[in-house]
Amino acid sequence: MKKKHILLLTTGGTIASLSGEDGLTPQCSGVMDRDLQQLRIHYDITVRDILCLDSSNICPREWQLIARQIFENRAGFDGIVVSHGTDTMAYTASAISFMLPGIDLPVVFTGSQLPLSDILSDGPDNLRTAFAMAASGFPGVFLAFDRKVMLGCRAVKVRASNFSAFESVNARYVAEVSNLGLVVDESVLPPRKSLPTLQDNICENVFLLKLTPGLNPAVFDMLAAMGYKGIVVEAFGLGGIHVLNKGLRGIRRAVEDGISVVITTQCLYDSSNLRVYQVGNQLLELGVIQGRDMNSEAAMTKLMWALGQGMDQKQVAALFAENLTGEITEE
Ligand code: ASP
Fold it and tell me: Is any atom of ligand 1 closer than 6 Å to the C-beta of 113?
């Protein structure tokens, strides 16, 4: 049988790091040669080093580069694997999910907690899972880690050092490796609503604010003065915010100024729902947008993307009611 042709785009991260005097430092794909040799038994692999960064340094500009590389190079490949540092991989995978609507092949992000140069690295296993998903024929943007595959827009890094670093939050896994091989749950695959396009404009003026008891509402005025166009608020529980002592004043002014304010929850699991409590309903009356069961990474990147497409407050609100790529559970 003809081998599947997989494009590997490398961006750095622990998986491709070597230990130096200053600590782990990302390298080009040469350090992956030994593992790629193994994978070449099963796949026809083309490698392109597009970045060489610790993912702490990956910003929206790099998301655009990655999105363009995927979009422009995808012809002739069955799937694409992107190796990436784990620290911001959930943000990148989520952003790319929005920037490439209708993507027509599997794009799989992966990395590792221990460099490939270490004999005990989790990297070889993660690469194997990522390549299997990339060869699966199921289009979408995914993240493969610890023998599991999840939607890029549902992935959250939940552990700093343990090998099971990522979880699919509020959504089932797309695939898991078992004694049957890679078992894909097709019901979790992202909806495909359009032909593939590259929509890579991103608005960087979006702020993620974690609410704390007694937070000074003037923070919202400060963000407006700094030119922020969108704010994601990680509120309490189902979406509560202190409404006493002028708590709502800042949000009201932000919404009146045309800023899109999305309310999510600081709880990792389950959905926010502003309709349950009086404090939530008061917020809804101000014109805030419900983030529902989106994780913060997805809410942030969806808002950055929506504002990057030039949408106004109303259009952003309408977009947040829509499930674009599996980021929210449809009611
Ligand atoms: N600091 C590294 C990075 O995100 C961590 C990792 O890859 O696991 O690039």
Answer: yes
